[in-house]
Automatic annotation (TrEMBL):
It is a single-pass type I membrane protein. GO terms for molecular function: ATP binding. Keywords: ATP-binding, Cell membrane, Disulfide bond, Glycoprotein, Membrane, Nucleotide-binding, Receptor, Signal, Transmembrane, Transmembrane helix. The keyword ATP-binding applies. It is found in: Cell membrane. One of its GO terms (cellular component) is plasma membrane. It holds the Pfam family F5_F8_type_C. The lineage of its organism: Eukaryota, Metazoa, Ecdysozoa, Nematoda, Chromadorea. Residues 1-123 form the F5/8 type C domain. It comes from the Eukaryota. This is Discoidin domain receptor. InterPro entries: DDR1-2_DS-like (IPR048525), FA58C (IPR000421), Galactose-bd-like_sf (IPR008979). It comes from Wuchereria bancrofti.
Length: 230
């Protein structure tokens, strides 16, 4: 970003289109938390004309076991890119992602040549949590209270497994979950019964001396703190 080296940017050999996919893959030597991406087109002293109007992110880590595609809080996969070759575009990822390998996939609705300069922001992932397992959340009164950022899979029993999501994104939901349902996970008691099980998998044995929960007690909308915790 903001540098001129070689031909000025990464340019895939083929033109991209809705049918032709190219990507730039970054391999880390450890799991990393990626929190933002900054992009720029190819300027090359005024000779460059290429940029990517949009792109997607795919990522892999050992505990995930497969490639996952990043989605923002509105479930959009395509991130807005550049509109010229000089200006930079900075995009913050909702909650960030944990990745050992990351692919930046330029996208375009028409066949075109693209070039990109890319900078990633984040830090090394030093926590011991591999994943958590929960029942899939519900859509309640038109509010989507599912764990939409969860990057694992849904098994045959309706549980989210092998991934990380809202419960580990560092974001605290606003008190009024009706205004910001994308920040919450909610379960319908009539569907799931009186018990919800949350399982957390660690890379090593841990001594747990405290657990902090952030829950909604917005009674007028039917949300209530549980009575017993085991």
């Amino acid at each position: 970003i903001r540098t001129e080296r070689g031909s000025g940017a990464w340019c895939p050999r083929q033109q991209i289109s809705s049918e032709i996919v190219e990507w730039l893959q970054i391999d880390f030597d450890m799991d990393m938390v990626v929190t933002a991406v900054e992009t720029q087109g190819r300027f090359d002293g005024g000779r460059g004309l290429e940029y990517a109007p949009g792109y997607m992110l795919e990522y892999w880590r050992e505990s995930l076991g497969t490639w996952a595609r990043y989605k923002d809080g509105k479930q959009d996969e395509v991130m807005a890119g550049n509109s010229d070759t000089q200006s930079t575009v900075f995009r913050t990822l909702d909650g960030g992602i944990v990745a050992r390998n990351l692919r930046v996939i330029p996208v375009s609705e028409v066949t075109r040549t693209v070039c990109m300069r890319i900078e990633l922001y984040g830090c090394s992932y030093r926590d011991q949590i591999l994943s958590y397992v929960i029942p899939e959340g519900d859509i309640i009164d038109g509010l989507n209270l599912k764990d939409i950022s969860y990057d694992g899979i849904t098994n045959s029993s309706g549980y989210l497994v092998k991934g990380l999501g809202k419960l580990y994104d560092g974001a605290v939901g606003m008190d009024n979950f009706e205004r910001y349902p994308e920040k919450w996970i909610g379960w319908n008691r009539e569907k799931h019964g009186a018990t919800i099980t949350i399982e957390v998998l660690f890379a090593k044995k841990k001594i747990i001396n405290a657990i902090l929960f952030h829950v909604s007690n917005f009674l007028k909308s039917g949300a209530q703190v549980w009575q017993i915790l085991h």
